[in-house]
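Minutes, project check-in
Item: structure for the 126-residue chain
Input as provided by the requester:
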Amino acid sequence: MTEGMQGQTAQAETEEITYYTGTDGKEYPDKTPKEYGPFGQEHLRYLMKNDPESYQDMVVKGTLTQYLNEVAESAEEDMERLIRAQAAQDGTDENLKRTDPMKWVGLMNNYRHCALEIVRRDWIYC
């Protein structure tokens, strides 16, 4: 590796790594990217505030990113499934969207908010 490339690698590594001070006072690397979406970020904030021991354990083991990505993916899937199920149950379809778009938007927003409450209860604040 050339000297210039080594400098780039070192620089890239220092930009990506942040550190978390554990409950024992030691600093641990947190290589968690901010790519796991709003549900993953919300669950991360919950863990850091309400369960710092679990958070620190996952940081040390290097499993935090995978865990948050799984939570975010599962929460998104549940959210979509709940919205589709409620819309189907109420008969909210493309026909209503064409004939009465304002009613369709209102119903879909209602379904989304209800699904968000359920997802937060089941995936984020647990």
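Outcome recorded: Helices lie at 3-16, 37-50, 52-61, 64-90, 94-99, 101-124.
No further action items on this chain.
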